[in-house]
Amino acid sequence: MSEQPSIFDILGPIMIGPSSSHTAGASRIGYIARQLLHDEPKKAVITLYNSFAKTHKGHGTDKAIIGGILGFGPDDERIRDSHELAARGGLEWEFKFVGDFVRFHSNTARVKLEGKHGGTVEVVGASLGGGRIRIQEIEGFTVDFNAQLPTLVIIAEDIPGSIQKISGAIAEKKGNIANMFVARNENFANMIIELDEHADKETVEKIAALPWVKFVRRVEPMLEGSSRYEK
Amino acid sequence: MEFNFLSDIVEYCRREKKDMAQAMLEYEMRNKRLTREQVYTGLKRTLFVMEESVEQGLTQQVISPSGMLNNWAKTILQCKVDTLGPALKKATARAIAVGEVNACMGKIAAAPTAGSAGILPAVLVTMMEEHAIPRERILEALLVSSAVGLVFAKNSSFAGSEAGCMGETGSAAAMAAGAITYLLGGNEEQILESVGFALKASMGLVCDPVGGLVEEPCTTRNAVGVANAFVSAQMALAGIKSLIPADEVIAATKEVGDLMSPRLKESGQGGLANTKTGREIQKRVFKTTE
After folding, report:
1. Of the options 2.30.30.60, 3.30.930.10, 3.30.70.260, 3.50.50.60, the CATH number for the domain spanning A149-231
2. What are the start-end ranges of the E strands in A130-231?
3. What tens digit of pLDDT does each residue of A22-78 get?
4. Cβ separation B150–A225 shorter than 8 A
5. Whether B27 and A75 lie within 8 Å, measured CB to CB
6. Which residue in A191, B33, B89, B175 could disulfide with B148, CB within 3.0 to 4.6 Å?
7. Chain A residue with the nearest C-alpha to that of B119
8. Is B82 helix (H, G, I), strand (E, B) or coil?
9. Single pTM value for the model
Protein backbone atom coordinates (compact mmCIF):
# COMPACT_ATOMS: atom_id res chain seq x y z
CA MET A 1 0.00 0.00 0.00
CA SER A 2 1.37 3.37 -0.93
CA GLU A 3 1.65 6.22 1.53
CA GLN A 4 -1.84 7.58 2.20
CA PRO A 5 -2.45 11.33 2.33
CA SER A 6 -2.87 12.87 5.76
CA ILE A 7 -6.17 14.57 6.58
CA PHE A 8 -4.00 17.64 7.21
CA ASP A 9 -2.90 17.64 3.56
CA ILE A 10 -6.60 18.13 2.82
CA LEU A 11 -7.34 20.59 5.66
CA GLY A 12 -4.17 22.57 4.98
CA PRO A 13 -1.41 23.53 4.71
CA ILE A 14 -1.69 26.33 7.20
CA MET A 15 0.15 29.03 5.34
CA ILE A 16 0.64 32.68 4.63
CA GLY A 17 -1.40 33.62 1.56
CA PRO A 18 -2.16 34.18 -1.14
CA SER A 19 -0.90 31.17 -3.10
CA SER A 20 0.31 27.72 -2.08
CA SER A 21 2.61 27.55 -5.11
CA HIS A 22 3.73 31.18 -5.41
CA THR A 23 3.96 31.95 -1.68
CA ALA A 24 4.16 28.82 0.52
CA GLY A 25 6.29 26.79 -1.90
CA ALA A 26 8.54 29.79 -2.59
CA SER A 27 9.28 30.23 1.10
CA ARG A 28 10.25 26.56 1.36
CA ILE A 29 12.77 26.92 -1.49
CA GLY A 30 14.38 29.82 0.37
CA TYR A 31 14.40 27.81 3.56
CA ILE A 32 16.07 24.81 1.95
CA ALA A 33 18.75 27.10 0.49
CA ARG A 34 19.40 28.44 3.99
CA GLN A 35 19.81 24.91 5.36
CA LEU A 36 22.22 24.01 2.56
CA LEU A 37 24.29 27.11 3.31
CA HIS A 38 24.44 26.11 6.98
CA ASP A 39 25.40 29.64 8.02
CA GLU A 40 23.71 32.99 8.63
CA PRO A 41 23.23 34.38 5.11
CA LYS A 42 24.66 37.83 4.45
CA LYS A 43 24.00 38.04 0.74
CA ALA A 44 21.33 36.52 -1.51
CA VAL A 45 20.95 36.67 -5.27
CA ILE A 46 17.62 35.23 -6.35
CA THR A 47 16.58 34.59 -9.93
CA LEU A 48 12.87 34.03 -10.51
CA TYR A 49 11.83 32.23 -13.67
CA ASN A 50 8.65 32.03 -15.74
CA SER A 51 5.43 32.48 -13.76
CA PHE A 52 7.44 33.37 -10.64
CA ALA A 53 9.12 36.17 -12.60
CA LYS A 54 5.88 37.47 -14.06
CA THR A 55 3.60 37.43 -11.03
CA HIS A 56 5.88 37.55 -8.01
CA LYS A 57 4.68 40.91 -6.74
CA GLY A 58 1.01 40.03 -6.70
CA HIS A 59 1.72 36.77 -4.89
CA GLY A 60 4.40 38.00 -2.49
CA THR A 61 6.85 35.45 -3.94
CA ASP A 62 9.76 37.81 -3.28
CA LYS A 63 8.76 38.26 0.37
CA ALA A 64 8.20 34.52 0.79
CA ILE A 65 11.64 33.57 -0.55
CA ILE A 66 13.42 36.15 1.61
CA GLY A 67 11.35 34.89 4.55
CA GLY A 68 12.52 31.34 3.88
CA ILE A 69 16.14 32.52 3.65
CA LEU A 70 15.65 34.12 7.08
CA GLY A 71 14.45 30.75 8.38
CA PHE A 72 10.70 31.44 8.49
CA GLY A 73 8.32 28.57 7.82
CA PRO A 74 5.48 28.89 5.26
CA ASP A 75 3.03 29.69 8.07
CA ASP A 76 5.16 32.38 9.72
CA GLU A 77 3.43 35.75 9.67
CA ARG A 78 6.78 37.52 9.61
CA ILE A 79 6.93 36.62 5.88
CA ARG A 80 4.81 39.68 5.17
CA ASP A 81 7.54 41.95 6.59
CA SER A 82 10.50 39.81 5.54
CA HIS A 83 12.18 42.52 3.46
CA GLU A 84 12.21 44.99 6.37
CA LEU A 85 13.39 42.27 8.77
CA ALA A 86 16.13 41.15 6.37
CA ALA A 87 17.37 44.71 5.89
CA ARG A 88 17.45 45.20 9.65
CA GLY A 89 19.37 41.93 10.07
CA GLY A 90 22.00 43.01 7.56
CA LEU A 91 21.05 40.72 4.67
CA GLU A 92 21.76 42.17 1.24
CA TRP A 93 19.71 40.79 -1.57
CA GLU A 94 19.02 41.20 -5.23
CA PHE A 95 16.27 39.79 -7.46
CA LYS A 96 16.70 38.94 -11.13
CA PHE A 97 13.90 37.96 -13.45
CA VAL A 98 13.83 35.62 -16.42
CA GLY A 99 10.39 35.68 -18.00
CA ASP A 100 10.56 32.68 -20.32
CA PHE A 101 12.90 29.80 -19.67
CA VAL A 102 11.27 26.67 -21.00
CA ARG A 103 13.78 24.24 -19.53
CA PHE A 104 12.48 25.10 -16.05
CA HIS A 105 9.13 24.41 -14.39
CA SER A 106 6.81 27.41 -14.51
CA ASN A 107 7.47 28.29 -10.87
CA THR A 108 11.23 28.09 -10.48
CA ALA A 109 13.73 30.03 -8.37
CA ARG A 110 17.52 30.00 -8.28
CA VAL A 111 18.88 31.05 -4.90
CA LYS A 112 22.54 31.93 -4.45
CA LEU A 113 23.58 32.54 -0.86
CA GLU A 114 26.73 33.79 0.78
CA GLY A 115 27.16 33.24 4.52
CA LYS A 116 28.67 35.41 7.23
CA HIS A 117 31.47 32.86 7.58
CA GLY A 118 32.31 32.82 3.89
CA GLY A 119 30.40 29.75 2.69
CA THR A 120 28.33 29.88 -0.47
CA VAL A 121 25.65 27.72 -2.01
CA GLU A 122 23.55 27.78 -5.17
CA VAL A 123 20.21 25.99 -5.36
CA VAL A 124 17.47 25.71 -7.96
CA GLY A 125 14.01 24.69 -6.80
CA ALA A 126 10.56 24.45 -8.34
CA SER A 127 7.25 24.98 -6.58
CA LEU A 128 4.74 22.37 -7.67
CA GLY A 129 1.53 23.52 -6.00
CA GLY A 130 -0.04 22.85 -2.61
CA GLY A 131 3.20 24.02 -0.98
CA ARG A 132 5.10 21.05 -2.42
CA ILE A 133 8.51 21.69 -3.95
CA ARG A 134 11.26 19.87 -5.78
CA ILE A 135 14.93 20.78 -5.48
CA GLN A 136 16.44 20.39 -8.94
CA GLU A 137 19.97 21.64 -8.75
CA ILE A 138 22.57 22.08 -6.00
CA GLU A 139 25.99 23.53 -6.76
CA GLY A 140 25.50 22.81 -10.45
CA PHE A 141 24.55 19.16 -9.88
CA THR A 142 21.22 17.98 -11.15
CA VAL A 143 19.29 16.57 -8.20
CA ASP A 144 15.69 15.64 -7.55
CA PHE A 145 14.23 15.53 -4.07
CA ASN A 146 11.20 17.01 -2.39
CA ALA A 147 12.47 17.59 1.17
CA GLN A 148 9.53 15.74 2.67
CA LEU A 149 11.92 13.46 4.54
CA PRO A 150 15.09 14.33 6.45
CA THR A 151 17.70 14.43 3.70
CA LEU A 152 21.49 14.38 3.54
CA VAL A 153 23.09 16.16 0.59
CA ILE A 154 26.66 15.06 -0.06
CA ILE A 155 29.15 16.08 -2.73
CA ALA A 156 32.27 13.92 -2.80
CA GLU A 157 35.11 12.85 -5.06
CA ASP A 158 33.92 9.97 -7.17
CA ILE A 159 36.12 7.22 -5.74
CA PRO A 160 35.34 3.51 -5.53
CA GLY A 161 33.66 2.49 -2.29
CA SER A 162 32.46 5.97 -1.37
CA ILE A 163 28.81 4.95 -1.25
CA GLN A 164 29.55 2.01 1.05
CA LYS A 165 31.58 4.19 3.43
CA ILE A 166 28.82 6.78 3.67
CA SER A 167 25.96 4.34 4.04
CA GLY A 168 28.09 2.51 6.60
CA ALA A 169 28.42 5.67 8.67
CA ILE A 170 24.65 6.08 8.60
CA ALA A 171 23.96 2.44 9.48
CA GLU A 172 26.42 2.60 12.39
CA LYS A 173 24.05 4.96 14.19
CA LYS A 174 21.06 2.81 13.18
CA GLY A 175 19.96 5.35 10.59
CA ASN A 176 17.62 3.90 7.98
CA ILE A 177 17.98 4.99 4.36
CA ALA A 178 14.60 5.46 2.67
CA ASN A 179 15.92 6.51 -0.75
CA MET A 180 19.29 7.26 -2.29
CA PHE A 181 20.15 9.03 -5.52
CA VAL A 182 23.61 9.37 -7.00
CA ALA A 183 24.62 11.69 -9.85
CA ARG A 184 28.10 11.90 -11.36
CA ASN A 185 29.76 14.94 -12.83
CA GLU A 186 33.34 14.40 -14.09
CA ASN A 187 35.32 13.76 -10.89
CA PHE A 188 32.58 14.33 -8.38
CA ALA A 189 29.52 12.44 -7.23
CA ASN A 190 26.48 13.98 -5.70
CA MET A 191 24.46 11.89 -3.27
CA ILE A 192 20.99 12.63 -2.02
CA ILE A 193 20.12 10.35 0.87
CA GLU A 194 16.61 10.42 2.27
CA LEU A 195 16.31 9.02 5.78
CA ASP A 196 13.45 7.80 7.94
CA GLU A 197 14.70 9.86 10.89
CA HIS A 198 16.90 12.91 11.27
CA ALA A 199 20.61 12.15 10.94
CA ASP A 200 22.38 13.07 14.16
CA LYS A 201 25.23 15.53 14.35
CA GLU A 202 27.80 12.81 14.93
CA THR A 203 26.90 10.98 11.72
CA VAL A 204 27.14 14.21 9.73
CA GLU A 205 30.52 15.02 11.28
CA LYS A 206 31.78 11.53 10.58
CA ILE A 207 30.85 11.82 6.90
CA ALA A 208 32.28 15.34 6.69
CA ALA A 209 35.59 14.04 8.09
CA LEU A 210 36.06 11.60 5.20
CA PRO A 211 38.94 13.18 3.23
CA TRP A 212 37.25 12.89 -0.18
CA VAL A 213 33.94 14.44 0.96
CA LYS A 214 33.63 18.09 -0.08
CA PHE A 215 30.21 19.01 1.24
CA VAL A 216 27.65 17.49 3.61
CA ARG A 217 24.42 19.18 4.59
CA ARG A 218 21.32 18.14 6.46
CA VAL A 219 17.99 19.28 5.10
CA GLU A 220 15.08 18.95 7.51
CA PRO A 221 11.56 18.88 6.16
CA MET A 222 9.88 22.23 6.53
CA LEU A 223 6.32 21.09 6.23
CA GLU A 224 3.66 22.96 8.05
CA GLY A 225 2.00 19.66 8.94
CA SER A 226 5.07 18.20 10.55
CA SER A 227 5.08 20.66 13.43
CA ARG A 228 1.40 20.32 13.97
CA TYR A 229 1.21 17.10 15.94
CA GLU A 230 3.87 17.96 18.51
CA LYS A 231 5.25 14.48 17.97
CA MET B 1 -5.91 1.93 5.89
CA GLU B 2 -7.13 3.12 2.54
CA PHE B 3 -10.30 4.94 1.44
CA ASN B 4 -10.57 5.43 -2.30
CA PHE B 5 -14.26 6.20 -2.61
CA LEU B 6 -16.89 7.69 -0.35
CA SER B 7 -18.68 4.36 -0.58
CA ASP B 8 -15.57 2.73 1.02
CA ILE B 9 -15.96 5.04 4.00
CA VAL B 10 -19.70 4.39 4.30
CA GLU B 11 -19.02 0.67 4.10
CA TYR B 12 -16.37 0.96 6.83
CA CYS B 13 -18.79 2.93 9.04
CA ARG B 14 -21.46 0.26 8.63
CA ARG B 15 -19.07 -2.61 9.32
CA GLU B 16 -17.34 -1.01 12.30
CA LYS B 17 -20.46 0.73 13.64
CA LYS B 18 -18.73 4.09 13.54
CA ASP B 19 -19.67 7.47 12.15
CA MET B 20 -17.69 9.24 9.44
CA ALA B 21 -15.74 11.41 11.89
CA GLN B 22 -14.64 8.33 13.83
CA ALA B 23 -13.68 6.59 10.60
CA MET B 24 -11.43 9.48 9.58
CA LEU B 25 -9.91 9.74 13.06
CA GLU B 26 -9.07 6.04 12.81
CA TYR B 27 -7.65 6.57 9.30
CA GLU B 28 -5.28 9.32 10.43
CA MET B 29 -4.21 7.58 13.64
CA ARG B 30 -3.41 4.31 11.90
CA ASN B 31 -1.74 5.67 8.76
CA LYS B 32 0.34 8.34 10.49
CA ARG B 33 0.89 6.42 13.73
CA LEU B 34 -0.61 9.16 15.88
CA THR B 35 -2.63 9.18 19.06
CA ARG B 36 -6.15 10.56 19.22
CA GLU B 37 -4.78 13.54 21.14
CA GLN B 38 -2.20 14.29 18.45
CA VAL B 39 -4.83 14.29 15.72
CA TYR B 40 -7.09 16.50 17.82
CA THR B 41 -4.19 18.89 18.49
CA GLY B 42 -3.89 19.27 14.73
CA LEU B 43 -7.63 19.75 14.26
CA LYS B 44 -7.75 22.36 17.01
CA ARG B 45 -4.92 24.28 15.41
CA THR B 46 -6.69 24.16 12.04
CA LEU B 47 -9.94 25.44 13.54
CA PHE B 48 -8.07 28.12 15.46
CA VAL B 49 -6.37 29.40 12.29
CA MET B 50 -9.74 29.35 10.49
CA GLU B 51 -11.42 31.38 13.23
CA GLU B 52 -8.52 33.83 13.41
CA SER B 53 -8.60 34.42 9.66
CA VAL B 54 -12.34 35.17 9.82
CA GLU B 55 -11.83 37.49 12.77
CA GLN B 56 -8.94 39.35 11.12
CA GLY B 57 -10.87 39.98 7.95
CA LEU B 58 -13.86 41.30 9.90
CA THR B 59 -11.89 43.59 12.19
CA GLN B 60 -8.64 44.64 10.55
CA GLN B 61 -7.85 46.89 7.63
CA VAL B 62 -7.62 44.57 4.61
CA ILE B 63 -6.76 46.09 1.25
CA SER B 64 -4.99 43.71 -1.12
CA PRO B 65 -1.73 44.94 -2.70
CA SER B 66 -3.47 45.03 -6.09
CA GLY B 67 -6.28 47.14 -4.68
CA MET B 68 -8.87 44.75 -6.07
CA LEU B 69 -10.14 43.80 -2.60
CA ASN B 70 -10.93 46.60 -0.19
CA ASN B 71 -12.54 45.77 3.15
CA TRP B 72 -15.52 44.05 1.54
CA ALA B 73 -16.21 41.73 4.48
CA LYS B 74 -16.76 44.66 6.80
CA THR B 75 -18.86 46.42 4.18
CA ILE B 76 -21.14 43.38 3.92
CA LEU B 77 -21.45 43.09 7.69
CA GLN B 78 -22.52 46.73 7.91
CA CYS B 79 -25.14 46.43 5.20
CA LYS B 80 -28.62 47.34 6.49
CA VAL B 81 -30.39 44.94 4.13
CA ASP B 82 -30.56 41.20 4.76
CA THR B 83 -31.57 39.15 1.75
CA LEU B 84 -32.42 36.16 3.96
CA GLY B 85 -31.85 37.13 7.55
CA PRO B 86 -28.61 38.06 9.31
CA ALA B 87 -27.14 34.53 9.31
CA LEU B 88 -26.62 34.38 5.56
CA LYS B 89 -25.21 37.90 5.52
CA LYS B 90 -22.73 37.08 8.25
CA ALA B 91 -21.72 33.81 6.59
CA THR B 92 -21.12 35.72 3.35
CA ALA B 93 -18.96 38.29 5.14
CA ARG B 94 -16.95 35.54 6.85
CA ALA B 95 -16.08 33.83 3.58
CA ILE B 96 -15.01 37.13 2.04
CA ALA B 97 -13.02 37.97 5.18
CA VAL B 98 -10.78 34.93 4.74
CA GLY B 99 -10.28 35.68 1.04
CA GLU B 100 -9.19 39.20 1.90
CA VAL B 101 -6.82 38.03 4.64
CA ASN B 102 -5.32 35.52 2.20
CA ALA B 103 -4.79 38.17 -0.48
CA CYS B 104 -3.10 40.42 2.11
CA MET B 105 -0.55 37.74 3.04
CA GLY B 106 -2.32 36.76 6.24
CA LYS B 107 -2.38 33.27 7.75
CA ILE B 108 -5.04 30.85 6.48
CA ALA B 109 -5.75 27.14 6.44
CA ALA B 110 -5.77 26.15 2.77
CA ALA B 111 -8.66 23.73 3.18
CA PRO B 112 -8.43 22.42 0.58
CA THR B 113 -6.65 25.29 -1.28
CA ALA B 114 -5.71 28.90 -0.57
CA GLY B 115 -8.14 30.08 -3.25
CA SER B 116 -11.05 28.26 -1.60
CA ALA B 117 -9.96 28.83 2.00
CA GLY B 118 -13.00 30.93 2.95
CA ILE B 119 -15.76 28.36 2.63
CA LEU B 120 -15.10 25.93 5.50
CA PRO B 121 -14.26 28.64 8.07
CA ALA B 122 -17.38 30.64 7.15
CA VAL B 123 -19.58 27.56 7.39
CA LEU B 124 -18.09 26.25 10.65
CA VAL B 125 -18.11 29.61 12.45
CA THR B 126 -21.69 30.16 11.30
CA MET B 127 -22.75 26.70 12.48
CA MET B 128 -21.19 27.34 15.89
CA GLU B 129 -23.03 30.63 16.22
CA GLU B 130 -26.42 29.76 14.74
CA HIS B 131 -26.79 26.28 16.21
CA ALA B 132 -24.75 26.69 19.40
CA ILE B 133 -22.63 23.69 18.45
CA PRO B 134 -19.76 22.90 20.84
CA ARG B 135 -16.19 23.07 19.52
CA GLU B 136 -15.63 19.34 19.96
CA ARG B 137 -18.40 18.65 17.42
CA ILE B 138 -16.92 21.20 15.02
CA LEU B 139 -13.63 19.29 15.14
CA GLU B 140 -15.59 16.15 14.21
CA ALA B 141 -17.12 18.07 11.31
CA LEU B 142 -13.59 18.89 10.13
CA LEU B 143 -12.88 15.16 10.08
CA VAL B 144 -16.03 14.57 8.00
CA SER B 145 -15.02 17.31 5.54
CA SER B 146 -11.57 15.73 5.25
CA ALA B 147 -13.23 12.48 4.14
CA VAL B 148 -14.90 14.31 1.26
CA GLY B 149 -11.67 16.11 0.37
CA LEU B 150 -9.60 12.94 0.53
CA VAL B 151 -11.81 11.09 -1.92
CA PHE B 152 -12.07 14.14 -4.18
CA ALA B 153 -8.27 14.52 -4.24
CA LYS B 154 -7.86 10.86 -5.17
CA ASN B 155 -10.39 10.82 -7.99
CA SER B 156 -10.39 14.40 -9.26
CA SER B 157 -8.11 17.35 -8.46
CA PHE B 158 -7.94 20.40 -6.19
CA ALA B 159 -5.72 22.20 -8.69
CA GLY B 160 -7.34 25.07 -10.55
CA SER B 161 -4.96 24.22 -13.38
CA GLU B 162 -6.49 20.74 -13.67
CA ALA B 163 -10.12 20.95 -12.54
CA GLY B 164 -10.79 24.69 -12.65
CA CYS B 165 -12.62 26.40 -9.82
CA MET B 166 -14.79 23.27 -9.61
CA GLY B 167 -11.72 21.64 -8.01
CA GLU B 168 -11.25 24.51 -5.57
CA THR B 169 -14.47 26.25 -4.46
CA GLY B 170 -16.49 23.30 -5.74
CA SER B 171 -14.67 20.73 -3.62
CA ALA B 172 -14.61 23.14 -0.66
CA ALA B 173 -18.40 23.61 -0.89
CA ALA B 174 -18.83 19.83 -1.00
CA MET B 175 -16.60 19.40 2.06
CA ALA B 176 -18.57 22.11 3.87
CA ALA B 177 -21.94 20.61 2.83
CA GLY B 178 -20.86 17.28 4.31
CA ALA B 179 -19.84 19.05 7.52
CA ILE B 180 -23.20 20.84 7.87
CA THR B 181 -25.15 17.64 7.16
CA TYR B 182 -23.12 15.79 9.78
CA LEU B 183 -23.53 18.54 12.38
CA LEU B 184 -27.31 18.60 11.97
CA GLY B 185 -27.64 14.87 12.46
CA GLY B 186 -27.53 13.60 8.90
CA ASN B 187 -26.44 9.99 8.43
CA GLU B 188 -23.66 8.80 6.11
CA GLU B 189 -25.96 8.50 3.09
CA GLN B 190 -27.25 12.04 3.63
CA ILE B 191 -23.70 13.38 3.93
CA LEU B 192 -22.96 11.83 0.53
CA GLU B 193 -26.13 13.29 -0.98
CA SER B 194 -25.12 16.77 0.18
CA VAL B 195 -21.67 16.28 -1.38
CA GLY B 196 -23.31 15.26 -4.64
CA PHE B 197 -25.58 18.32 -4.68
CA ALA B 198 -22.74 20.74 -3.96
CA LEU B 199 -20.48 19.31 -6.67
CA LYS B 200 -23.25 19.18 -9.26
CA ALA B 201 -23.84 22.90 -8.68
CA SER B 202 -20.15 23.58 -9.30
CA MET B 203 -19.76 21.29 -12.31
CA GLY B 204 -17.63 22.94 -14.99
CA LEU B 205 -16.82 26.08 -13.03
CA VAL B 206 -13.78 27.65 -14.67
CA CYS B 207 -10.69 29.13 -12.99
CA ASP B 208 -10.24 32.55 -14.56
CA PRO B 209 -8.56 34.84 -12.04
CA VAL B 210 -7.96 38.41 -13.17
CA GLY B 211 -4.23 39.02 -13.43
CA GLY B 212 -3.67 35.45 -12.21
CA LEU B 213 -4.16 36.68 -8.64
CA VAL B 214 -6.19 34.85 -5.99
CA GLU B 215 -8.67 37.73 -5.65
CA GLU B 216 -11.23 38.28 -8.42
CA PRO B 217 -13.47 36.29 -8.78
CA CYS B 218 -12.09 33.81 -6.20
CA THR B 219 -13.20 35.78 -3.17
CA THR B 220 -16.85 36.22 -4.14
CA ARG B 221 -17.00 32.64 -5.41
CA ASN B 222 -16.07 31.55 -1.89
CA ALA B 223 -19.11 33.39 -0.57
CA VAL B 224 -21.35 31.70 -3.14
CA GLY B 225 -19.74 28.38 -2.19
CA VAL B 226 -21.01 28.91 1.35
CA ALA B 227 -24.57 29.34 0.09
CA ASN B 228 -24.12 26.24 -2.07
CA ALA B 229 -23.05 24.24 1.01
CA PHE B 230 -26.06 25.30 3.09
CA VAL B 231 -28.56 24.70 0.29
CA SER B 232 -27.04 21.31 -0.55
CA ALA B 233 -27.13 20.21 3.08
CA GLN B 234 -30.73 21.44 3.39
CA MET B 235 -31.82 19.21 0.50
CA ALA B 236 -29.90 16.21 1.82
CA LEU B 237 -31.27 16.60 5.36
CA ALA B 238 -34.79 16.67 3.93
CA GLY B 239 -34.13 13.26 2.45
CA ILE B 240 -33.90 14.28 -1.19
CA LYS B 241 -31.58 12.03 -3.18
CA SER B 242 -28.91 13.19 -5.59
CA LEU B 243 -29.90 10.60 -8.24
CA ILE B 244 -26.26 10.42 -9.38
CA PRO B 245 -24.25 8.97 -6.46
CA ALA B 246 -21.56 11.25 -4.99
CA ASP B 247 -18.66 9.02 -6.11
CA GLU B 248 -19.95 9.16 -9.67
CA VAL B 249 -20.35 12.93 -9.45
CA ILE B 250 -16.71 13.15 -8.38
CA ALA B 251 -15.71 11.00 -11.35
CA ALA B 252 -17.69 13.37 -13.58
CA THR B 253 -15.78 16.38 -12.22
CA LYS B 254 -12.57 14.67 -13.33
CA GLU B 255 -13.95 14.11 -16.83
CA VAL B 256 -15.24 17.67 -17.07
CA GLY B 257 -11.93 19.06 -15.77
CA ASP B 258 -10.03 17.11 -18.41
CA LEU B 259 -12.34 18.41 -21.13
CA MET B 260 -12.00 22.05 -20.09
CA SER B 261 -9.67 24.19 -22.17
CA PRO B 262 -6.34 25.00 -20.48
CA ARG B 263 -7.18 28.66 -21.01
CA LEU B 264 -9.99 28.24 -18.50
CA LYS B 265 -7.82 26.56 -15.90
CA GLU B 266 -5.79 29.07 -13.92
CA SER B 267 -3.99 30.49 -16.94
CA GLY B 268 -5.14 34.03 -16.30
CA GLN B 269 -5.89 34.14 -20.03
CA GLY B 270 -9.52 33.07 -20.37
CA GLY B 271 -12.94 33.92 -19.01
CA LEU B 272 -13.07 36.93 -16.70
CA ALA B 273 -9.30 37.39 -16.92
CA ASN B 274 -9.68 37.86 -20.67
CA THR B 275 -12.49 40.44 -20.56
CA LYS B 276 -11.76 44.03 -21.55
CA THR B 277 -11.95 45.15 -17.92
CA GLY B 278 -10.03 42.13 -16.67
CA ARG B 279 -7.16 42.89 -19.02
CA GLU B 280 -7.18 46.57 -18.06
CA ILE B 281 -7.02 45.66 -14.37
CA GLN B 282 -4.14 43.30 -15.04
CA LYS B 283 -2.21 46.02 -16.85
CA ARG B 284 -2.82 48.53 -14.09
CA VAL B 285 -2.00 46.12 -11.24
CA PHE B 286 1.27 44.89 -12.65
CA LYS B 287 2.37 48.38 -13.62
CA THR B 288 1.79 49.84 -10.18
CA THR B 289 3.25 46.94 -8.24
CA GLU B 290 6.28 46.27 -10.46
Report:
1. 3.30.70.260
2. 132-138, 141-145, 151-157, 177-185, 188-195, 213-219
3. 999 999 999 999 999 999 999 999 999 998 998 888 889 999 999 999 999 999 999
4. no
5. no
6. B175
7. A11
8. coil
9. 0.91
